[in-house]
Every structure is written in structure tokens, then in C-alpha cells.
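Help wanted!
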Amino acid sequence: MIHNKSANNPPPPAHEDSDLIPQMTGLQNLWRQLRNNPLAMWGMVLLMVFFVLAVAGLLLTCGRNPVMDPEKVRLVDTLKPPLTRANTAVLAPFERPAFGIYFLGTDKLGRDVLARMLQGAHVSLLVGFISVGIAVFVGIILGALAGFYGNYVDSVIMRAVDIMLCFPSFFLILTVVALLPPSIWNIMIVIGLTSWPGIARFVRADFLALRKQDFVVAAEALGLSKMKIMFIHMVPNAITPVLVTATIDVAGAILTESSLSFLGFGVPPPAASWGNILADGKDFIFDAPWLFIASGMAILITVLAFNLFGEGLREAMNPKLRER
Amino acid sequence: MFSFLSRSLVEKLITLFFISIISFSVVMLAPGDPSEIDPMNPKFTKEDIQRLRKAFDLDKPLYIQYYLFYKKLFTNELRSYKDNQPVFTKIIERFFNSLPLFLVGTLLTWCLAFPLGIQAALRRQSFFDRSTTFFSYLFISLPSFFLAYVLIICIVKLFNVPVIGLKTFGREASSLWYLVNDHIWHLMLPSVLGAIGGIAILSRYVRSQMLEVTEQDYVRTALAKGLPQDTVYYKHALRNALLPFITMFGLTLPGMIGGSVIIETIFSWPGMGRLGYEAILARDYPVILSLNFIAACLVLLGTFISDVLYMMVDPRISLTGGKS
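Answered by r_m:
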């Protein structure tokens, strides 16, 4: 697991024609590997598009007087198909959607689906990133402590990991989210706190190997504090596989949120997430299929992009596959 | 062998004890009280609430509640808050409804994932490999209920058969042929949906495992000395590639509860997952906790079985030493 160490170090000083020094830095190598993997490249491009959309969505739908209001209820224009013109006879100018057209139609309350999808983009992204961020944070700290100290610290933490892995995770998440008051933050925290064991295991395994490396021994001999050694010197060397797993976990968290929405415990209204647009859409699957299709496709493409990119990264960093 | 088994058993019992404490405190410490489920009901006097709290031990301190809860669970005296039925009987009844779904789903998963994964590995980078890769990512990335609704609409429109529920209501007097057919149709769609995600994930694992094994020296040697390819791949390589899947086989057991919540809810299938969902909606703590406990038992049982199987199959693992 130390093969990617050079990824985080500056390129070595130029000693030409030396066999000992790799020709490329780890990052360049990674990039070359990724470029040969069309699926991963597609994933990356889609992710970039998605990020731009999410940021644009945040800018367009936030504030007191947004360009596109995702929460504006227009009871004259309920369940309109995509590309319908707004009912200008009844709606005042400030109530109309941008350009006067519902590009993706409207839902059962006459809210503009395009605006809701744009708002949902950053909400879904936020759920994915914050919950995985929590998982990564907890996982790194516990994994680092277990791998660094060993002995009883290790046994206690690994026992905790075993216990966490014994819970049926979706059922546990559902139970906790259902019992707590509805809030988007609860969902993120619960998803985060149930998905750290895998990451803790990765970090621990890396730390066990790193613990005996020269740079760690040297740092200890120089009298650096243990916290500094662990979190400043060792974590950067163990973080790459964690980031790969995290990429894939973000996809999982977005799916989990949509499943929770489906069961009625997702991001609470009036905030839109792709999951709750999809869950609302299922009741109108014959009358207003665009609700269901637009949000379903958005989730599918995003999650697919995260998965493809994450797997591409994993494959690119696997030294066994690298030489082929 | 005996010492290993007994030690592993003791370890698992300790884990189970901690799980019981954690799940009990998660559920009991959540805000809200089951006696407040209908606070607006005028017929519900303070005395009634006191009586109910007493009947379900809710007026006692937490650690006594914990003791009483698990004592009642094991002596089958535990009763549901919702309908005062014995919890154990309820769960057993639902268990036998979930069982066919689980068995057919698992059978489908294992029968399809292995051939797909092995073929993809043997024809690395072929069209077949690329398309199975793409489709498995597609199915991993789809929200399961999105796929479910699309499939329900397709099946019902194409074949004009009812698929929701355990069987068609009110047709019990029909011919045997009709009843059997009806059962198969009702069973097929939910089990296929449950299996799709599993097939996608498992076939990826099989592929990477098979790729790793076919890189080994002994495979090259066997090919070099002129053994037929089929013998080399399906007899020598496959056996070694299959080893890690023994572990996964044990871990499919808990999927009976956690993995089936959404599918069983969509199809109104009266199984354990749906029982859990209904219990969560009704704040029926005894049922939630018992299901959690059973799920944890299933996980531990699964890991125990896979440990034992692993030892029996792989002669390199010694029966006496080492952690499980």
C-alpha cells in the first residue's frame, strides 16, 4: 500500500539517467493510467459537468429573490409537461419561471422542476460529500490510532469495527433517521457514522506497514510528537486508497439518501433533493412521467460517474494491473 | 479445531452483547416516547399513559428495561407495542414469507454472477468484458426503486399479470395451474430486483479474483505444459479463485432483513424487511430491536459458518492458531 507514496511528494531532483529514480511522478503515472481507461474518463467528464451544474444551481436558486425559484407554488400550472409556457394570464411576472417556460415541466404543486433539479443537485452533492467526509474523518482517526499504537488500542478499535459491521446498515440508518426529528443534517451524520468502519480498516492496514518505515522511525528519533507523526507525516501516505473508497462511497450515500426519500425519511421539504423529487414523482408516474425520469436519470448518471471514476482510480493505482 | 471454535464462539457472544447494548440505547435514547404516539386523542388520559408505560416497563430505569427486554425476548414473552402480539411469532411468520424471496434471489445471484465474472476475466478487454463492466456499473448506480417501477410497468403492460403482493387476492378457488403460475409471477419480479444489484457487485469481484489467479505462475506452467485451456481455467484456476467467496456466502445471510426493506415495501411483500419498516413507522420498539438483534445474530452466524468452511476448504489455514 506504499506504492503511491510518491504521489504526494514533490518530484525528485533531476539526476539524469539514474535507474533508481522513477521517470514520472506518481501523479503523472496515475494520469496516464486514467487516460487509457475510457469509462473512467467519461466518469470524470460527467463529474465535472455535474459540479458546474451544482454550483450554477446553487447560485441560481439561492437568495431571497432567486433567478429560478424552486419553492414557488403555482396552482394554475400543476403537472405541466416539459417545455410548456407559463400561464401568463394568471401569473404575475414575478411568479413566472425564467424565460416563461417550464423546461422540465412542473410538479403537483406547480413548482418548476428544472429549478428543483438544480437545487437538488447541490443538496444531493452536499449529502454525499458531508456524510462521506464524516466517515473519512472518523475512519482516519480511529484507523490511525489503531495502526499506530497497536496492542489494546488496536483490539478495542477493531472490535468496535466488527460491531459496526454487524449492524444491517440500511436498517440501522432508517431506524435512526426515522426516530430523530427530520433534518438534512441528521441524515448526513447518520450515514457518515455508519460507514466509517471500511475506511478505518484501510487506514489501519496502511499504518501497520508505514509504522516500520524509515521516515517514521526517523521522525520518532527526532522527537516529534506522536500526533504530528501520525496526522502530518503518516496520513498523507495512507490517504490515496481512502480517497478512492470515498469517491465510491459518495455514490453510495446519494443512493442511500434517495432510498430514504422513497421511504419518506429523506431530505425534508421544502428543500429539494433528487431523491425526494424521484420519490414524489413515483405517485405521478403515469400522469407526469417527466418528474420520475428527470430525477431518476440525474441520480443514475451522477452515481454512475462517481462509480466509474472511483473504480478507474482504483485500477490505475493497483500496481499489479499497472504494468500491463 | 475445538479450541478455535469455542474461542470464536465466545468472541461472537461478546460482540453480540455489545450490539444488544448499542442498539437498545440508540432506540431508547432517541427523542420521543412510544406512549406519545397519539397525543391528540382525548380518550387517552394521563392514567392510561401511566398504565401503558407500566405494562411495557417504560417507567423503569434504562438498565432494568434492558435486562427485562432481553429476558422477555428469550422467553418469548415480548409483545409488540402496536397490536400486543408476541414479537417472536410475528417475526417467524414474516421470516417464512421472506425466505423464498431470499432463496430465489441468492440462487439467481450466484448462478449468474459466477459465469459472467469468469467469462469477463478470461476474455479481458473484449467486447463482452467491456459490456458486462458497463452494465454492472449501470445496475449498481440505479436506485433500486426506480428500476422496480420501470420493470413493474413493463411487465404489467407486456404480460398483463398482477405482480404486487404475495399472490393475487380473491383467486384462491382457481385451478392449481393458475395458482402456481400466479405464485411464480409474484415471486419473480422482487427476487430478480433483489438479485440484480448482487449480480452486478459479485460478478465484479469474481472477475478481479479470477484475473488475479490467472496471473499466477502455476497457471502459466499448466498452460505451458500443454494442458487444455478449459482444464487449466475451470479446474485449477477456478478452485483457487473461489476461496474468498466462501466468506461472502456467509455474509449474504443478513441481507434477508436489511436488503429487503425497499423491495418488500414496493411489492407489499409481507416479509421481515417490511415488518421492520412498519415497526419503525409505528415506533414499535420491541419489533425494531428484535429485528436488529436477529440481523446481528445472522451476521455473526454467517461469519462463523464462513470461518468454519474456510478452514475445511483451505488446508493452509491452521485450525489451532491465529485470529478469525
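OP: Thanks! One thing I noticed: The first strand of chain A starts at residue 84 and ends at 85.
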